[in-house]
Model the fold of this input.
Amino acid sequence: MGETKKTRRKEGFMQAVLSLMFSQVIIKLLGLVYNLYLTNKDGFGDQGNAIYSGSYQIYALLLTLSSIGVPNAISKLIAERTAKGDHKGALRIFKVALGTFAIIGLIGTLFLFLGADIIATYWLNIPEAKYTLITLSPAVFFVTVGAVLRGYCNGKQAMRVTARSQTLEQLFKTVLVIILVELVYKFTNGNTVWMAAAANVGTTLSIFFSFTYLLRFYRITRDERRKELKETVNYQYHNVKSIVKRILSVSIPMSLSSIMSSFNKNIDSFTVVRGLKKFMTEEDAKAQYGILGGKVDTLTSLPLAINIAFATALVPNITSSLAKGDKETASKRVSFSLMASMLIGLPCTIGMMVFADQILNLLYPAQPEGALILQISSLTIIFTILDQTINGTLQGIGKVMTPATSLFFGMVAKLIVNLVLVSNPTFGANGAAIGSVVCHMVAFSIAFTTLRKNIKLELKLGNFLIKPLIATIIMAVCSLFIYNVLSGIIYSSLATIIAIIFAVIIYVIAVVALRILSKEEFYMIPYGQKIYKILEKLGIYRKEED
Done:
């Protein structure tokens, strides 16, 4: 009976992870579609990306200040009350949060709308970004309120609702961005400024559609809430002031990490164009920033989509497990998530370094510049992926200030590196990429040290680092050999695709052959039991092994 419950818990956790993972992969792929469209679009390119990305980073910073910590904070608080049977208390937390953050979101919208001209001219040093900021301003309100709704769904373990809302948002965004930019292109003869503004109109409309989906879900689950309210036990009444204080005491520390992340991106917005203008033209400087903010950021963030599911699902699951006193389950989930993060991040890092030039030529044939910047930036992937999982764990166990603190020190390191290197002709935009690597190395080191002090990790150096590194090297050598052989026979773009496909296959085979995952870890994966039995029959794993 106990074993069955434990299995269900594992499956529930992994189902939540897979649901979020699937949605995040779809989201990033759709994001890549419109990024490819915009970058390769006549009249847009790297300079259009500079206008679009610069304004988006300011919007993202405002969004972080108003809402980013909210989903995890609300999910944590609701998961705590729900685990103790206090459904009435959980609902009250949600309603108070909804009213509070609706006001905060409205203030953020007005600030962006009224301050667009000043922000574009004096902060970004890109006056053309004014209209893109104005078109993004309504989105701040809808995302802020939507964040509370997502937090409620996550706290109730309804991860699929969050996943669907995010997927729908990105689907609408991709379609609307392409349609609106095409219309503006035709009516303005390819005006870059208006095309960038049109792209952000698509972003705002898609966020509104996502918000309405979440609101609809909340309305159609009224009967379920009524039933839960009748079954409430351990209800603790708190007035509005104390609830707001409690929400902010959790969300602000959680937001600080995301605030630091947004400031990290905005360091490039504030320093790259200014620094590069010291030894190149303004147009070239904007193009270099467009490479960083458009192509490189898009590509290096793709692997994070797979891993962010673990970080998101860990917060309510660890909180719930610890609230029930089940430290063993919490420890196993954290260790497994870190192992999965390493297995995801390492091959993506090395693969992007090895195939940087080929990937850019494949995806951005009209604007293929930036291979060295991408190679350097790809080193951030492994540190960022591990940091995602570690930060989700730290938030789940109550160490909500550590992610913010670690990223703050990383951000300071990046600012120093940017100021020193970007204005140096020897480094230029590569200096900003180096700054990002230093930033995430510092942040990871601090966060991982704190994690080890607070939770028992079941990680062996051989399985966690050495074997994945061996598997990655095997993958890189074999796939590069395949590319070099094929590129002399077929088109380079086709050779790149085939080499990447074989890289994935070779890596999976290497991971299995090296027996990196244990029997228990296989069992935590959906259908893992069946996979493990097949591997036993093949003789890769012995039946007596655990």
About this structure: DSSP finds 21 helices and no strands in the chain. Confidence is low (pLDDT under 50) at residues 1-11.
